[in-house]
Amino acid sequence: MGQAAIVLGLLGAAQAVATVAWPAQVSDGQYSYPFTPHWYTAAMIFFAVQQLGVLAGIGGIALLARARASQATRAGLLIGTIATILLMAIAAIAAITTAHDAAGLGPGRGIRQRLRRADDRDRDRPGHRRHRSGPTAGPARAGPGRAGPGRWIVLALGIYVFVPMLPALFEPVVLGRLAFGLWMLLVAALGLILVRAGRSPVDPAALRHRIAECDRKLARHRAAIETGVDPTSDSGCPSASASSGHRRWSRSLRHSCGWRSCRTRARLATGTPGTATSSRFCKPSSPCPRCSTVPVRPSVL
After folding, report:
1. Which residues lie closer than 8 Å to 174 by C-beta, 6 or more apart?
2. What's the domain range around 220?
3. Residues 179, 51 share a domain
4. pLDDT grade for 52, boundaries at 50, 70 and 90
5. 156 shares its domain with 264
């Protein structure tokens, strides 16, 4: 996933630079400028292939977050992937059809000519700023990231789409293409982070030390529960399950060191750097000594 995002992101940035340097084959008032309609079709197909790098980045994030993601995160990644595919196909087909119709090579020629004449009249008005559509227009999605540098690159991707990139697409054609080239460089950076995240080393000695420390804390925590004392306060857990003391006890146990120890054991056994967990390494939850309620295992570890 990461390698695909790197390669396709760099290809997208290279296409943006090549499009800026491309000699004009048609007049600047034509929709497919600077390409002929056939070259424009080839550029849009290549653009659609590049967007597979965005999908690869989303897929890489989904794989890293698979063990820790909540239902909302999984749903967001699924919706983002489907929306990216659909919008990418719609944008590419609409752009190719419009370019051919504007050149009189497809259906709807009369309608396109009338729209172009109306656009020419608007462009002649004083102070009118020209808007050209080119192979830089298209959908882009980014999903949630993991901790570390990946969190910030995903945040940068999300902000960049709405703050600099979309306004730049309504500016002169060169600025829009350069903005899209920078967007694809950010996608390549996301791919690099995904590759590094998948190759991060695991130190067995450090993980064993962490397991021992967590086990000691868990033993003290369970000893406090067996004596009937709420670990979060000096008073015991009342029998009423809706009491604040019980809620504090349940919340404390759900986020106690036992679950962290479970995560660490799974990482050590599977050799996965912080993304894997297995139920066979998990310790059973201790019931509340007063109301015999077993806390629910948290959905996000």
Report:
1. 20
2. 204-281
3. yes
4. confident
5. no
Q: What is the pLDDT of residues 269-285, one digit of tens each?
A: 545 444 433 333 334 44
Domain end (from 198, 227, 249): 198
Contacts of 136 (CB under 8 A, 6+ apart): 16, 19, 47, 169, 176, 177, 179, 180
pLDDT digits (tens, 9 = 90+) for 104-116: 555 444 444 544 5
DSSP string spanning the chain? -HHHHHHHHHHHHHHHHHHHHSPP-S-TTSTTTTS-HHHHHHHHHHHHHHHHHHHHHHHHHHHHTTTT--HHHHHHHHHHHHHHHHHHHHHHHHHHHHHHHHTTSSS-HHHHHHHHHHHHHHHTSTTPPP----TT----------SSHHHHHHHHHHHHIIIIIHHHHTS-HHHHHHHHHHHHHHHHHHHHHHHHHHT----HHHHHHHHHHHHHHHHHHHHHHHTT--TTSSSPPPS-TTSHHHHHHHHHHHTSHHHHHHHHHHHHHHT-SSS---GGGPPPPPPPTTT-PPPPPPS--
Ramachandran class of 148: left when φ > 0, alpha when ψ lies in -120 to 50, beta otherwise: left
Query: What are the residues whose beta carbons fall under 8 Å from the beta carbon of 80, sequence distance 6 or more?
Result: 58, 141, 142, 143
Tokens of 74: 């999984």
